[in-house]
Amino acid sequence: MCLERRDLPVPSLYGPYRFNLRNVSSSFQKSDFGSMSEESDSSDEDDEDEELEVENELLDGGSLKKTRRKSSGLHQDKIFTSIQGINCKRSFSSAYCTIANRVNSVNTFVKVAYPDMIGGKGAGLLEPLHSKDRNVCRTKLQSSVERGLNADRYLHNIVYDLDELAAAEVHIRTQDPAEMLCNKDIQKLGVKEPGSTARLRFESRFESGNLRKAIQVGTREYDLILTPDINSTSHHQWFYFEVSNMEANSTYVFNIVNCLKSNSQFNFGMKPLLFSVKEATLGRPGWRRIGTDICYYRNSYRFSNKRKKTYFTATFSFKFPHALDVCYFAYHFPYTYSLLLTQIWKWTCNAPNSSVYIRVDNLCSSLKNNQIPLITVSALDTPDNLLIVSI
């Protein structure tokens, strides 16, 4: 529930971006200047008294007129607790896992994604655009039509089905700390999946993951179906999922078959993103653009309630850099809610050592009762940067 108008933070005379909290414990008062540690500091009250003395002295001088109105401040339930109590000495990955376990999700998650856990970014290098080959796209389109007309001649092995997993209620998340969300991708490196099959293994039961089904239609070719955004039946365009149990230097083809937009940046040089956990362990973490034979075209799959409307396919070919790696694919750089909160936690931890004032309040809550942060960033209050009104 969002703040009512009377509860909105009101700036004080001493600092235009300094908001008053009502009935807030001293342990959280310290977070005004960014420290989210578990320890409290009684000197905060002394600092506030000094600030009020400076303000009163200026007001008594006759050159200023007091214009601040008395504010009720924020209610106790408006305190941003999502990152509270996490010691600033903890690593980014450890803090991310703690925060991710506090997030309320619609679907059941079984892990946190490795790129998000380490704050994965781009490689920081200029990467070339893809040059579209119309002959390749024409061949891929013809192959798609052929599979649709003669489906019985082709493979149709469902290798990942989110609906089936949800119905089976496997990997139920509990409050047992031993079963809290974490990441074990590094332990999976070099480990072949049970059985002699060489097919890929998919996973998307992590924050922002949206792969719904993966169907093997060839030896190394897969049709992928995306899950729509929450509370919607459409918005199939971006994607984020994990792949493992692969072979190196073999060409794989992914066909995302339920895209909705009539055109895509994939037709104008854009490439999908890949994050390799193996590369990260070798000191080269980061997302990079990959793929050849990238095309985007209308397919033969129709909407169930609209006979004349069809879906579109985004398809690309690629080679994995390492065998038995754990890789993540994304339409663009993922930015999860937990990653946002972890970066806010990091900012608040760094703020005491800088001249920046940062404060985080709870603006409102989402439908799933996740807090929406209201972030204030300004300079620290000093007698030199007072907000004054001359008379």
TrEMBL record:
Disordered as annotated region, ranges: 29-69
Compositional bias segments (type: Acidic residues): 38-58
Cofactor(s) needed for function: Zn(2+)
Record-annotated Cytosolic carboxypeptidase N-terminal domain positions: 202-331
Gene3D superfamilies tied to this protein: 2.60.40.3120
One Pfam entry name: Pepdidase_M14_N
Transmembrane regions: none
Protein name, entry field: Cytosolic carboxypeptidase N-terminal domain-containing protein
